[in-house]
Structure formats: C-alpha cells, structure tokens
Write a structure and sequence with these properties.
Layout: E1 25-30, E2 33-38, E3 44-46, E4 50-54, E5 57-63, E6 67-72, E7 77-94, E8 101-123, E9 127-135, E10 148-151, E11 154-168, E12 171-182, E13 189-192, H1 193-201, E14 209-232, E15 252-260, E16 264-272, E17 277-282, E18 288-293, E19 296-298, E20 303-307, E21 314-320, E22 329-334
Parallel strand pairs: 9-12
Antiparallel strand pairs: 1-2, 3-6, 4-5, 5-7, 6-7, 7-14, 8-9, 8-13, 8-14, 10-11, 11-12, 15-16, 16-21, 17-20, 17-22, 18-21, 19-20
Amino acid sequence: MQEGLVPLRRRGRVRLRSLIGAACAVALITTGTTAIVASPAHAQTVTSNQEGNHNGFFFSFWKDSGNVSMTMGNGGQYSTQWSNVNNFVAGKGWNPGTRRSVTYSGSFNPNGNSYLTLYGWTRNPLVEYYIVDSWGSWRPPGANSMGQVNTDGGTYDIYRTQRVNQPSIDGTATFYQYWSVRTSKRVGGTITTANHFDAWASRGMNLGNHYYQIMATEGYQSSGSSNITVQEGGGNNNPPPTTPPPGNNGCTVSVNRADEWGDRFNTTFSVSGTNNWVVTIRTNGGQSLQNSWNASISGNSGTLTARPNGNGNNFGITLYKNGNNTTPTATCSTG
C-alpha cells in the first residue's frame, strides 16, 4: 500500500429487505368520460440499506454513514448523489451473476475517491470482485499488478488483495478480492466478464458460485454523482473464428483427458507449430465451462474458442458434465 493511500473499508452487512414496488393507476377524467389507465414505471429513490428488484433488474444499495441516495428509473437506469459519505456502494444488475457481456453508458462525476465498476460476489470460494472502468482521486487497489488482460478495446491490470476477518456477505470472514482495473478511464462501453474471469483463473484466482453482479458506483470519504444505464449484451473484441476455421498453416493441437470428479472433468490442450494460435473446442451435449487456465476462452457451451494469453502453448479447461462425459474435440489454426 502506498503511503497516504487509504483502502476502502468493506462494509458490514445487515439483513437486507426487498424493495417493494407499487403499481399505480390513475383516473383520467374528461368531459363525460372516466378512464383508468396504468401509469408508466415510476422512478423510486432509496436511501436505506436494501437489495431487491426494480423494473426487471436486481439492485443493491448500501452505505455506512453520510448522505447518499439512489434513484432508479426504467430498465437498468439509476442515478446516485452522495456527500460527506464514509463508504457506500449502489447499482443495478443481476442476481445471480454469470459470464455475461455487460454494456453501460452515462455519466460519472466523483469529487474524491470513487469507483465506477462491475462489482460482484461469489461463494465457495468467498470472493469479492471488481472490474473497474473509472475512478476518482485514487486508482485502486494500491497493490502490485499480477499482469494484464486486453479486452473490449482497452488494457486492464490484474490484482489480488486479501481481507482478513472483515465483514462480507456471509458475516466476518477472510476472503480475496479480485481486480481488473482499466489503465485509462472510460465511462461507457462493453465489459466482457468471461475475459476477466478467465484471466483471473489463469493466475489461480478462481471464482465460486455467483451471488449478485451489478454495475456499481462506490464512494469512500468523497462526494459526487453518477447517472448510469446498464444492459446485458454488447460487443466482444475477441470474436470466435469462422466455422470451420481456416487452414491450420502447420498449427496442431493435442487433447488429453485429465482429472475427473462426479460432476465435471478437466481436459488439457497442447499447441505446436505456432505461438499465435486459435483453438476451436467443441464440447458435447449439455457440457458447460466451469474454469480455464493459461488461455483466454470465449464461450460457455457448445463451441469454445481459446487464444494465448501470455502463458505459453499449454492450457486447460474444466467442464461440467451435465449428463455427458464425452471428451471434447479441438482443431487449431493460426491467429
């Protein structure tokens, strides 16, 4: 930690209450006519700690002290205002989180330390994670980078920090925080979560079972405002190759079955003939990706695409069987 830099205090958790939205009707009275029509979706402002659902999206709001409000509008839109706050985090997204592409837009105006981040938690292992696109006066997390991942038109530094006996979604616990922090700020664009999750996994930073995943505004001893709209889907700067792939130009890949458990198994791949490769992996039946290492993987089921991420030409994946125990096949082409 650099001298003078203060880490974010993680928040104590309280029992969270679902936000109850009210559907309203209004009577429109004209000369001789009375009609009852449904009102549009109402904006709703929250100022107390809670999580729930609003207009088709999950939301979470937490603060420890200070003046903070979040006003939620149609779809994935929300805005925040904060001042004299110690620590808060608020946003809209999904529960549970997953390997999705997230697109967002809007404005972010911090005065002091604040993050604009795709934020979430997993259990087993308990992990708090951040994909940070912009920040205020201090770029988090004040640690040594473990490498980088290039995705969605930018470069992100990767970090792992640890919280010891600190509040979490499951009470006081010791847990890791995983970080991808963009090297240059932006407010708006697409975040392809799978590229970050895979880059973390290649460094031994594995996620567990997802809890929520929100596009969050977080502030610490600061003031400011944000107005963000989030939705699922968007571009991916690492599109899969055409199927079938072009000629392999001397690129070959070997496929080897490895460790196996009741509900999943590992498969390893070894590429030869080039260091600039694209491996197309064809899974079977309902198999789905659980983990990967030493390569950047796109896709979750069906056809997966692997590309080098700086960790050599040997990589692996873990697949959930989902009723099918057949080893996947693979082909290789130059990138």
